[in-house]
Amino acid sequence: MIAVVIVAAAVAVLVVARGGDGQEAPGIGDLPAAPWRATPVARSAVPPAYVTAWGRARNRTTCALLFPLDGGPALAGAEATEERTPSDNGWDIFLTSRAGSVEVLGLFDRSTQGDRSPDTPSYTKTWADGSVAKYAVDVGNAAPGTFDPNSSPFEAVLTVPGQTCAYRIYDSLGREHLEFVFDRLRLMA
Prior knowledge:
The chain folds into 2 domains: about 1-25; about 30-185, no CATH class. Helices cover about 15% and strands about 25% of the residues. It has 3 helices and 9 strands. The model is unreliable at about 1-25 (pLDDT under 50).
């Protein structure tokens, strides 16, 4: 009888480990490396507009500059710009071309949640360093019932261990492009 209980328990553990549906549940070792944990980019190689925005931010000692290296082919020739945040409490940077734009805002605390409509899907991506991005269609810029994951603007809130801020990332080109941009984000040295 004890052997039957042990076998049943082992089967239950295996089912849970496989995610309950036969798919392997991702473990920490299965998570992708966080791109921003690669060698930081030298300050001299970071677009000057980004360095300017971060340099005047009051939170620069606790909210490292996280920026997109580029926007890929969809944003070829994009221009790096910046805007002031209220009272320079944080920083706000942009990568913009005629095709669209990506914005990264380092301003809010880690408890920040993105706005999302209950009738649109939301997504979560986790990296091996414990960073987590929660993202969904930008409800402020989409007409009800017009959600299209590949063309509706998306907004993400990314938390990175060791940073007291949450990074808000906006991408006007949709979910696939936002997920591409995650892989292009780097920290400044």
